[in-house]
Write a structure and sequence with these properties.
Helix content is 33%, strand content 26%. With 255 residues, it is an alpha+beta fold. The relative contact order is 0.14. An eight-stranded mixed sheet has the order 4-3-5-6-7-8-9-10, with helices on both faces. Strands 12-11-13-15-14 form a five-stranded mixed sheet, with helices on both faces. The chain has a two-stranded antiparallel sheet with strand order 1-2. The protein is globular. One calcium ion (CA) binds next to β5 and α6.
Length: 255
């Protein structure tokens, strides 16, 4: 079927494009009031989409900048060519490429590549999660009081009621800290690697959460929506944890 090595190589190629652009200078445009897009987002996406289309011509594509193209099979590639655009535009070195393959609501595989640290996270359903070839597992923290977490805020933070500020305050007070690192797909991989105990965010897109969601599940963690509902890789929110702190976290998010 789909060779994970092929997808990994595509993610690595896209990561190289991002790093080169970072060094050669980035041109930034605004999509919304604080929502940016750069020439690097577009170049990375063009590379990933062309490479996937060439190898998997029957599969559909859902990519952040170009939208959805239906294929003639049930398989859909879900692509964030640059997750962490605001970080990237400021030269803050925390961003990634995220590529997932889904079949309906089922997650088949995920690859997330951080080109700054040269860390490649991969997961295939039922086969575990790996970082640069080594198996990774979620942490063993059993209370929020002993946990380090991350979250994020929507670009519409100034205008939406779902701004996550109250949950952020509650969880921050109950834990060892809540970071807002600015690249949801990579944050999910930090949970999978046991470096963070949990991550949640309320207003996301499938390309932010599909690959990272599978990574956490395959690393032995728990992934749901923020109200505790079944996780969908095509959904819009995520609560991902080591499993042990999940119920406590969901309770505080709800308030
Ligand atoms: C964003 C990042 C950020 C999250 C935003 C996303 P982008 O993706 O994942 O961490 O808080 O909600 O939109 O725009 O950098 O691809
Ligand atoms: Ca994103
Ligand atoms: Ca993006």
């Amino acid at each position: 079927m789909v060779d994970l090595e092929v997808v990994k190589d595509i993610a690595l190629g896209a990561g190289e494009i991002l790093v080169q652009k970072l060094h050669s200078g980035v041109s930034v445009e605004a999509k919304g009031s604080i929502d940016l897009v750069t020439d690097a987002d577009k170049a990375s996406e063009a590379y990933v989409v062309e490479a996937l289309r060439k190898r998997f011509p029957r599969h559909g594509i859902l990519a952040e900048e170009g939208g959805r193209t239906e294929g003639s099979s049930d398989y859909l590639w879900v692509i964030d060519p640059l997750d962490g655009t605001t970080n990237f535009a400021h030269g803050f070195p925390y961003f990634c490429v995220s590529i997932a393959l889904v079949k309906g609501e089922e997650m088949v595989l995920g690859v997330v590549y951080d080109p700054v640290r040269r860390e490649c996270f991969v997961a295939e359903k039922g086969s575990g999660a790996f970082l640069n070839g080594r198996r990774i597992t979620v942490s063993r923290a059993s209370t929020l009081h002993s946990s380090l977490l991350a979250t994020g805020f929507p670009y519409e933070i100034a205008t939406t009621e779902r701004n996550n500020l109250e949950p952020f305050g509650r969880v921050n007070k109950a834990s060892q800290g809540v970071r807002s690192l600015g690249a949801a797909a990579l944050d999910l991989c930090q949970v999978a690697a046991g470096r963070l105990d949990a991550f949640w965010e309320l207003v996301l897109q499938p390309w932010d959460l599909a690959a990272g969601g599978l990574m956490v599940l395959e690393a032995g963690g728990t992934v749901t929506g923020c109200a505790g509902e079944k996780f969908s890789p095509l959904g819009h929110d995520v609560c991902a944890s080591n499993g042990l702190v999940h119920a406590e976290l969901l309770q505080l998010i709800k308030g």
